[in-house]
Automatic annotation (TrEMBL):
<dbReference type="InterPro" id="IPR036979">
    <property type="entry name" value="CM_dom_sf"/>
</dbReference>
<feature type="coiled-coil region">
    <location>
        <begin position="6"/>
        <end position="33"/>
    </location>
</feature>
<keyword id="KW-0028">Amino-acid biosynthesis</keyword>
<dbReference type="GO" id="GO:0046417">
    <property type="term" value="P:chorismate metabolic process"/>
</dbReference>
<comment type="function">
    <text>Catalyzes the Claisen rearrangement of chorismate to prephenate and the decarboxylation/dehydration of prephenate to phenylpyruvate.</text>
</comment>
<dbReference type="InterPro" id="IPR002912">
    <property type="entry name" value="ACT_dom"/>
</dbReference>
<dbReference type="InterPro" id="IPR045865">
    <property type="entry name" value="ACT-like_dom_sf"/>
</dbReference>
<dbReference type="GO" id="GO:0005737">
    <property type="term" value="C:cytoplasm"/>
</dbReference>
<keyword id="KW-0963">Cytoplasm</keyword>
<keyword id="KW-0175">Coiled coil</keyword>
<keyword id="KW-0511">Multifunctional enzyme</keyword>
<keyword id="KW-0057">Aromatic amino acid biosynthesis</keyword>
<comment type="pathway">
    <text>Metabolic intermediate biosynthesis; prephenate biosynthesis; prephenate from chorismate: step 1/1.</text>
</comment>
<dbReference type="Pfam" id="PF00800">
    <property type="entry name" value="PDT"/>
</dbReference>
<feature type="domain" description="Prephenate dehydratase">
    <location>
        <begin position="87"/>
        <end position="264"/>
    </location>
</feature>
<keyword id="KW-0413">Isomerase</keyword>
<dbReference type="GO" id="GO:0004106">
    <property type="term" value="F:chorismate mutase activity"/>
</dbReference>
Length: 355
């Protein structure tokens, strides 16, 4: 080891750190001035944030893009925080994967508003208790998160999707106990239990699976019960003081959940965009095909479709749709105009940037 050369490089790192710290402070002050110049204009602008991160990634070839994105997402969050700290509602308690979705959307400079259910997330935004809501839309293993769709269908109509983020979901088995052999009950959100179905069958075949409101609620319910375990995030296990008995217990290695950021206002066009809406058709042969035909005629790529029962009308349904494109694009506008004429009702859920 060349101690002289090592000391030289450490001193160089110290100098660079000092320069970086000065630039961070200068960036934060510039953000404060931008906030004053904006007046009452919106502070959360996911399109602008994605553009900034994209330019930074181009300037950092050879570095891990996910790591660079995380670092810069936090820097943007810090600078946004000198203008205002957003309040974000999510399915709690803290430590849930929805909580991690909040961090993915806003970074760490955010005031979390945990809610007991998905309707309560939308209600918190509607009543002004939160600026934004973050709700799971779809999981790569278990598909559509149906309670979110049901809550969205009955939410205030001026609450729309502003952004879409995706996070990697790694489940752990956590308990106050220290041995999986002592576990008699496994608690979690139904989606999480479904994502770990094969692992639980193979490793805890005698344990009863108990669905609860969220993964973090499952972790909290294990306090004082060494015979219980939670399928939850490592963050939830840490916050509840639980031992992690097994890691990455989801049945497929590539497990991701996409989240919607919902709120009031009008989203801006991004580099890539989606438009989401729900509709209902008459209960007659061929009406669904007739309603969807304009998407084909206008060359739109349908990326998601989900049916849900229509309340008060047995065996009738409304349909959630995602298509690629922005509302102001002529193909999207023309398709929706025609679909409104062919449906009983059609409600726009948002036209927004996606990554």
């Amino acid at each position: 080891m060349d101690k002289g050369k090592l000391q030289h490089f450490r001193e160089k790192i110290d100098t660079l750190d000092k320069q970086i710290a000065g630039l961070i402070a200068e960036r934060a002050e510039t953000a404060r001035e931008i906030g004053r110049a904006k007046g009452g204009a919106p502070v959360y602008d996911p399109v602008r944030e994605n553009q900034v991160i994209g330019r930074v990634l181009l300037a950092c070839p050879g570095l891990d893009p996910e790591a660079v994105t995380r670092i810069y997402r936090e820097l943007i969050s810090l600078c946004r925080g000198v203008q205002y700290r957003p309040k974000a509602a999510f399915l709690g308690p803290e430590g849930s994967f929805s909580h991690e979705g909040v961090f993915a959307a806003f970074g760490g400079t955010v005031d979390p508003v945990p809610c007991p259910s998905f309707p309560d997330v939308f209600a918190a935004v509607d009543k002004g208790q939160a600026d934004w809501g973050v709700v799971p839309a779809e999981n790569s293993l278990e598909g559509t998160v149906l309670p979110t769709m049901d809550a969205f269908a009955s939410a205030a109509k001026d609450i729309v999707i502003h952004n879409e983020v995706s996070i990697k979901v790694d489940h752990v088995l956590a308990s106050e106990g220290t041995s999986p052999e002592d576990i008699r009950e496994v608690l979690s959100h139904p989606q999480a239990l479904g994502q770990c179905r094969e692992w639980l069958r193979a490793n805890l075949p005698r344990a009863e699976q108990v669905p609860v409101a969220s993964t973090s609620a499952a972790a909290a319910a294990c306090a004082g019960r060494p015979d219980r375990a939670a399928v939850c995030s490592a963050l939830a296990a840490e916050r509840c003081g639980l031992n992690i008995l097994a890691e990455k217990i989801q049945d497929r290695g590539s497990n991701r959940t996409r989240f919607w950021v919902v709120g009031r206002g009008t989203p801006r066009r991004g580099e890539r965009n989606k438009t989401s809406f729900l509709f209902n058709v008459e209960h007659k042969p061929g009406r669904l095909f007739y309603a969807l035909e304009p998407l084909y005629e206008n060359g739109l790529n349908l990326t998601h479709i989900q049916s849900r029962p229509l309340s008060g009308s047995p065996f009738e349904y409304y349909f959630f749709i995602d298509v690629e494109g922005f509302l102001e694009d002529e193909p999207v506008r023309k398709a929706l105009d025609t679909m409104r004429e062919r449906t009983v009702f059609l409600r726009l859920l948002g036209s927004y940037p996606c990554r």
